[in-house]
Amino acid sequence: MDVVALEGMSGGELLDHAGDLATIRDRCEVEILRVAVQHALLHNPDTLDPAETGRPGRERAKRCGGEGAPEVGEFAAAELGARLGSSTISAWWLMCDGLDLVYRLPKLWARVEAGEVRVHLARLVARKTRDLTIEEAGYVDDRIVKYADGRLTWTRFQARLDGLVAAADPKATAEAEQKAARQQVATPTRPDPENDHGLRGFYIKAPAATVLVFDAALQRIADILADLGDPAPVDQRRVTALLVLSRPDLAAQLLAAYQAWSDRPADPAGPPPEDPDQPTQPEAPTSPPDGPKPEITWENLLPQVVINLHTYAAPDPEPGSEGIARVEGCGPVTETWIRDHLSPHANVTVKPVLDIEGQAPVDAYEIPERHRRAVRLMTPADTFPYSTSLDPDQIDHTEPYQHRPDGRPARAGQS
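Structure (tokenized):
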């Protein structure tokens, strides 16, 4: 596609061009989905050698999609993903969604091919209906197809789709609720260096009542912190409350001390006049309650943290310049952040990453912990093309095995 000069366009021409590009984008998404479907069909079970599929590590056929969708060779996704520049799992789900549309949602697929339904909406329907039978998927297909052309907002479309899926198989909906109840989780989110700037998220998926109780507890502690003089905005106080709640014993002490302080009696009124002949004076007003506020011993709340700190040593740093470091799990941060944001909230042990290649070799199958740590620090990600895995237990060979024409190793020491 040729690059179009934009500088000479009027406002209307520029918007017309944007509309043309959107049309091309939508058509390309449809064509990529069609390619994924055809790629899956080309890698059908008949292309596999039955004598090989039963051996360990060999390619097998797997059903790609819901009931009625054909089986596909499981290695097909790696080839497709490499060409699309996506992960293997993304390519696999692309094929599954496409096959479900062709074999289970034909009315919706027809509108996709006609350019009347965006691919992302059609793929949403395919995913939501994957566990339904063919008949149940057809029930949803008949009733959702006319709403999939963009007339509804995303949330309204999803709500209608969820209702149809539930109505198609109420029993499966109940089972899905039970399954979801077993998939409760409370875990840190993956770091996002572009947006987190040293912060991290925490994801909780739990029964609604649990979340409501937790939310109320955070708000209660945040309100107490405000009464005790914390000037931070409420959202920041709720984060501080999370730290307080991480130590239930100290949180209980704080709640008890705060309750005693807030329930303290008012100071008594002033003494009555001594001369009985004097006219009665109005009773002196009581003084507001006074007394020392409870204090939080923050040192007792600070967790013990070990961080791996990758520092960037500039050859000729300017005087007073801000150093940059990368904290594992947080991304690139300034040295000021480490001092002002991390240290006040944790007892920190910093392990600088220095000379990790200077490891004494070990002639043993077992990997020493120092070597495992060095490999993870040098290559923290899975080295398979387009893989997104950052599993700390993933220890890969990061340099390809080298062969000579005669089959012998190209260099000694290769494993």
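The mean pLDDT is 80. The longest strand covers residues 304-311.
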